[in-house]
Amino acid sequence: MTSSSTVPPAGAGRPATPAAPTGPVRPAPSARWRRWTRPVLVANLVAQIGIIVTGGAVRLTGSGLGCSTWPQCEPGQFTAQFHAETTYHQFVEFGNRTLTGVLSVIAIATLVLVWTDRTRALSYRLLGAVPLLGVAAQAVVGGVIVLLHLHPGWVSLHFVVSAALVSVSLLLLHRSGEGDGPPAPTVPPRTRAVAWALGALTAVVVVLGVIVTGAGPHSGDDEVGYRLAVDPALMSRLHAAAVWVFVAVLAAYLVSVRRAPRRVRSAAWLLLAITLAQGVIGYVQYFTGLPALLVGLHMLGSALLVAGTTRVVLTTRTRS
């Protein structure tokens, strides 16, 4: 007669497996913050372009000294205040300063979101500091402009720095949507060289455009019509010649990318549309006596031109 034994249940002697959670799994706080990165980077790019438009409004309305000092608007007051002797110039200038404050907040958010993303390469994270550093530099330049009573050299530098920040902001937005692997070309080397030539020509076109504006009736001072001692007509012709060279190189680029990936071709055609619109506005404003509204639209177009060219260059390579 054999002794009876109890058969152990399956899994006996092994540690119990924890039950799977029944509720939704929440992402870590850092992952939840990361979803705001792209919207903030888009807002940064839009604000960098917007500050060019409001800065243009300051120049076009002759409101550069609407606030007589800096960082205060008037001695003893930081904001524009309405009273019997107040002109609209003070509110135009203070409005531009207010947008600078908004841009500063966006730039801080950009720095926090990009720099704290430890999953990304250091080169990308360092880019996150550029908008804030640029805003700080622009605030200093703006203060110098007021204290030097709209010195034309500093006014021109103000715009050039803004254009550079638009380019970097577009680069930062583009990098946020790609990996950190080594860049791989999407077009042949010769085509990529043409894209870089477009970038160099954009810089020339923008700088000449700044000189043209500083030499014309919209130089930023309603009492001094021509603050740069150059011939406005000659500078306008040089500016137009640079634009025509840009158009010719862009046409060559469009031919060379006709079989390239779709995003390469789309970026090139968008740049062509921006360029043609800028050309139309430029010639119309020249032959109609430079109305302020058209000059303002031309300044907006210049910011879009910088962004469009930057996008063209970036699409000539990809990162895995």
Automatic annotation (TrEMBL):
**Which pathway does the database say it acts in?**
Porphyrin-containing compound metabolism
Molecular functions (GO terms): metal ion binding; oxidoreductase activity
Q: What GO terms fall under cellular component here?
A: membrane
| Region described as Disordered: spans on this chain | 1-31
Recorded topology in the membrane? Multi-pass membrane protein
Biased-composition ranges, Low complexity, are 1-29
One GO term of the biological process aspect: heme A biosynthetic process
| Superkingdom of this protein's organism | Bacteria
Transmembrane stretches, by residue range?
40-60, 98-115, 127-148, 154-173, 194-216, 236-255, 267-286, 292-314
Which InterPro entries does the entry link to?
COX15/CtaA_fam, COX15/CtaA_HemeA_synthase
Q: Where in the cell is it found?
A: Membrane
- One Pfam family in the UniProt entry: COX15-CtaA
Provide this UniProt record's keywords sorted from A to Z.
Answer: Cell membrane, Disulfide bond, Heme biosynthesis, Iron, Membrane, Metal-binding, Oxidoreductase, Transmembrane, Transmembrane helix
The species this protein was found in: Cellulosimicrobium arenosum
Report what the protein is called.
COX15/CtaA family protein
